[in-house]
Amino acid sequence: MNLAAACNNDGHAKLARHEWDGALADFNRAIELNPQLAAAYCNRASAYYNKGDYDRALQDFNRAIALDPNYSTVFNGRGYVLLEQGDWSGALADFNRALGPYPHDAAAYNGRGNARQNLGDADRALADFSRAIELNPSYAAAYNGRGNVKWTKGDLKGALADFSKAIALNPKFAPACTNRGHIRRIQGDVDGALANFNRAIECNPKFAPAYNGRGSIKWTRGDTSGALADFNTAVELDSKLASASFNRASVFYDKRDYGRAIQDYNRAIECNPKFAPAYNGRGSAKWAKGDVSGALGDFDTAIELDSKLALAYCNRAGVYYNQRDYDHAVHDYDRAIALDPTHAASYYGRAAVCFVKGDYTRALADVKTCQKLGGQVDPAFLAQLMQPPSKAKKEEKSVISNQ
Q1: Mean pLDDT in residue range 80-101
Q2: DSSP string, 141-181
């Protein structure tokens, strides 16, 4: 065996022991001795990938492919790099290429499942994760991936089972702990959710989504400072985690620090230009600062991106109301209520519009619904509605934006 191959083998052994820096040194030496050794570039790319240096990993995988276009293993590795970089279509193509000569590669099915899920192809993603599990029943990441798909399809019980299986296979698997925390929260088990987020952080103190999830729990419990600290940590660990910037922005909004809220909403939108709730939140902050046209533009964008986002319709209706465009206002309130019949603020806003338009019966009905849902009603407004129509005065009521 020549010296370059020996260095490559030594590096490969260190990869298996998770000794990334030592492995890199060996692969560097192998490439120095033999710049045409495709395997050394592939392995060095794997070391860079595990260190989170995706740009260098991509360069080395590309170099390995240039040296040996039939080196199928490289396509699998490059596919995972492209997943990290958000190139779902490129990743899908690479995993397909990897599966050609190796149709029993569980890692390639798992990767392709992730690519398909991000491309919105939930059914085929589910099939890929299930196939990965068939090939490797101990594949924790595949259970986690399948759990994510089941979650998006509304199968919370199935998602919880898969996340729990992933954790049983790998008790230190932070993503599965975090995902199980989210399911617990959706199911109303807040303590269970918090326990899972804490466990994820113990497993991986640098896993930003776990801090983001824990911050959300603290926020709902009224621990604003604790929530803000967790959101800060999440953003510091992963500046591209749009949901963390969004959550921190929402905290600033509640604190009436609208300028900082807008900065974080901007960051969330930069990370994910299709994040409809971030546009809705930014619109609310702009509205609070008096930028009505900017707010209306953001609510429009939020609705274009997600036509089922009830809050955006409610907020846009509020802008229309303030502009005395009552027909458009009532239309948007109607839409908001159709999408979310439990949103008290939409009933209150529609009541205000109906009152100004002289439809006191409908206004009173909406106010009562608002109260039943736990919404706050201005006592003076309610008193006016309880008067005979001839004595009621058409005074505009205040309508505010909603996060």
Answers
A1: 96
A2: HHHHHHHHHHHHTT-HHHHHHHHHHHHHH-TT-HHHHHHHH
Classified as helix, coil or strand, 16 is: helix
CA distance 133 to 396: 61
Q: What is the pLDDT of residues 18-69, one digit of tens each?
A: 999 999 999 999 999 999 999 999 999 999 999 999 999 999 999 999 999 9
Q: Is the pLDDT of residue 347 over 90?
A: yes
Q: What is the CB neighbour count within 10 angstroms for residue 261?
A: 26
Which is nearest to 177 in space by CA: 130, 222, 144, 138?
144
Q: Which of 202, 223, 225, 201 is closest to 212 using CA atoms?
A: 201
Q: Which of 86-95, 314-323, 366-375, 392-401 has the lowest mean pLDDT?
A: 392-401
Closest by CA to 181, choosing from 225, 119, 230, is 230
Which residue bears the tokens 């560097």? 28
CA distance 30 to 11: 9
Q: Do 11 and 19 form a contact (C-beta atoms < 8 A)?
A: no
pLDDT of residue 388: 59
In the 8-state DSSP scheme, what is residue 65? H
Q: Please state, in angstroms and rounded to a whole number, the distance separating the CA atoms of residues 39 and 390.
A: 87
- What per-residue confidence (pLDDT) applies to 402? 63
* Residue 387: DSSP 8-state: S
Q: Which two tokens stand for residue 288?
A: 């609070």
pTM: predicted TM-score of the whole model, two decimal places: 0.88
For residue 260, the number of C-alpha atoms closer than 13 Å in the C-beta half-sphere is 13
Give the C-alpha separation, 371 to 366, whole Å: 9
Quote the CA–CA distance of 206 and 216 in Å, as a whole number. 17
Q: Tell me the DSSP string of 81-128.
A: HHHHTT-HHHHHHHHHHHHTT-TT-HHHHHHHHHHHHHTT-HHHHHHH
Structural contact between residues 42 and 73, judged by C-beta atoms closer than 8 angstroms: yes
Tokens describing residue 240: 């591209």
